[in-house]
Design brief:
Elements lengths: L1 H25 L3 H11 L12 E2 L2 E2 L5 H15 L2 H24 L7 H8 L18 H6 L14 H19 L2 H10 L1 H11 L11 H18 L19 E6 L6 H6 L5 H7 L16 E6 L9
Antiparallel strand pairs: 1-2, 3-4
Helix pairs in contact: 3-10, 4-7, 5-10, 7-8, 8-9, 8-10
């Protein structure tokens, strides 16, 4: 019996020694950190799919210049993991609003990825003065019937701004002849793309020598399209519940001025912050509305927000 107890004690001592040695090996020394970094983190070259296209228009990937530029954008966007995950989350929230408007106007679904690279699906503000998810300039907005001033800026209304983007893209397609050139013109302008085509005596975006931003534009769109359509292929892992969802709302008609949006919001059981989240186009805490224009204000349905105790 004593021999068995001694044997068990010896085995136990060996186990403790082994654990101690393993702990020393796993300690955060410079050598061990480097070993774990090499073993636990890997960066892989990405195979560029041979059948990539934008709006059904094939990319000439047999051209080495085109292949390298596409490879760059796939690499940059695959390994910018935090940004990629945010794109998946926001796409779940906002694509259902954008997609039916594109479809209504006969614009290819691929153009929703243009909105992704324009703003990251946020109400971004550019140094040049563009605003909203579709990054529309003030003059373009006003020319197409949107109200833009300090009190109301409808470029921040996703439905209305998507409508304006569609009008612009349809006009560009008519002028330039392809969806790829129409997309490029969204960045560089119709006149800009048209003049570059004439100067360089070419007819395709992929044959143009352009500045950095416009030269990367289509490649970035296609890269985001490829990644967002194939998350696991590019190493993105998430569950449906990890994505953002759009909060259901109903619309309230307002055709008068509103002196205090805090009180207005409280009438619907929400606070001012929640009202602004759903109506970012309301730029001030009041609505002037001297012309008695009819506005539609989105109010979240009951039960989706809870009051802080």
């Amino acid at each position: 019996m004593k021999i068995v107890q001694k044997a068990l004690a010896f085995v136990g001592l060996l186990s403790l020694c082994a654990l101690f040695i393993y702990a020393l090996q796993d300690a955060p020394t410079d050598e061990n950190f480097e070993r774990k970094l090499i073993n636990d983190y890997n960066v892989y070259a990405i195979q560029v799919p041979s059948d990539l296209n934008f709006a059904g228009e094939p990319m000439p990937l047999k051209n080495p210049d085109i292949l390298e530029r596409m490879d760059r954008e796939l690499l940059v966007n695959t390994y910018w993991q935090s940004n990629g995950l945010l794109m998946f989350k926001r796409a779940k929230k906002y694509f259902p609003i954008i997609e039916p408007i594109l479809k209504k106007h006969g614009i290819p679904d691929d153009f929703k990825y243009l909105a992704v690279i324009e703003s990251g699906l946020t109400n971004a503000v550019s140094p040049a003065g563009a605003r909203g998810v579709w990054q529309i300039m003030p003059a373009t907005a006003r020319e197409n019937g949107l109200e833009v001033n300090d009190n109301v800026d409808e470029r921040y209304n996703l439905e209305k701004s998507t409508e304006i983007a569609c009008k612009y893209l349809l006009k560009s397609k008519e002028n330039l002849g392809s969806w790829t050139l129409a997309a490029a013109a969204y960045n560089a302008g119709n006149a800009g793309i048209s003049s570059r085509l004439k100067e360089q005596n070419v007819t395709s975006y992929y044959d143009l020598l352009l500045g950095e931003e416009t030269g990367r534009y289509i490649f970035r769109i296609v890269a985001l399209k490829e990644i967002l359509k194939n998350p696991t292929k590019y190493g993105f892992n998430f569950r449906e519940k990890d994505l953002y969802s759009n909060i259901p709302t109903y619309k309230v008609e307002v055709d008068t001025s509103v002196s205090d949006f805090t009180k207005f919001a409280e009438n619907f059981g929400i606070n001012y912050k929640i009202l602004k989240i759903h109506n970012p186009w309301l730029r001030e805490s009041k609505l002037n509305n001297k012309s008695r224009k009819q506005y539609l204000i989105d109010i979240p349905k009951e039960g989706y927000y809870f009051k802080t105790p």
